[in-house]
Write a structure and sequence with these properties.
Length: 159
C-alpha cells in the first residue's frame, strides 16, 4: 500500500504540477491576450477620438455652412423683394415715359401747327401792313390834294 500511496502521491504531485503549469500557461496566455485586447482597445479608442474630433469639425463646418446658407437665403429674399419693388417702379416709370412721349408728340404737332399759323399770320400781317402803307400813302396824297384844293379855293375866293 505504501507503493500505492507513493504512486498516488506522485500522481497527485504530477497533477498539481500539471495544474500549476496549466494555470501558469493560461495566465500567460490570458495576460498576452489581455495585453493584445488592451492595445486594440487603445488603438480603437484613439481612432474613435480622432473620428469624434473629425465629426466635431465637420459639425462646426456644417453649422457655419448652414449659417451662410441662411444668410444667403435672406439676401436672396431681400433681393427678390427689391427686384419686385424696382420692377414695379420701372413699370410705372415706363408708363409715365410713354405718356410723356405721347404728350411730347402731341405738343410737337401742335407746335408745328402753331408755327404754320404764325407763318400765315405773319404773311397776313405783312400784307395788311403793305395795304395799310398803301392806304396811308393814298391818304397823304388825298390830304395833299385837299390842301391844294383848299389853297386854290382860298385863292379863287380871294380874287
Amino acid at each position: 500500500m505504501n507503493i500505492m500511496k507513493k504512486d498516488v502521491n506522485f500522481v497527485f504531485f504530477i497533477l498539481i504540477i500539471a495544474t500549476v503549469v496549466s494555470f501558469a500557461g493560461f495566465t500567460a496566455y490570458y495576460q498576452i491576450s489581455f495585453r493584445n485586447i488592451n492595445v486594440e482597445y487603445d488603438t480603437k479608442l484613439a481612432e474613435l477620438n480622432k473620428v469624434t474630433t473629425d465629426l466635431l469639425e465637420k459639425k462646426s463646418l456644417l453649422l457655419q455652412t448652414t449659417t451662410e446658407l441662411d444668410t444667403t437665403k435672406k439676401g436672396r429674399e431681400e433681393l427678390g423683394q427689391r427686384y419686385d419693388t424696382l420692377k414695379g417702379e420701372r413699370d410705372v416709370l415706363q408708363a409715365e415715359r410713354d405718356t410723356l412721349k405721347e404728350n411730347l408728340y402731341q405738343t410737337r404737332a401742335e407746335l408745328e401747327q402753331k408755327k404754320e399759323q404764325v407763318t400765315t399770320l405773319t404773311t397776313q400781317v405783312a400784307a395788311a401792313r403793305s395795304e395799310a402803307d398803301e392806304w396811308e400813302s393814298r391818304y397823304k396824297s388825298c390830304d395833299d390834294n385837299l390842301d391844294t384844293c383848299r389853297a386854290d379855293l382860298a385863292s379863287c375866293q380871294a380874287g
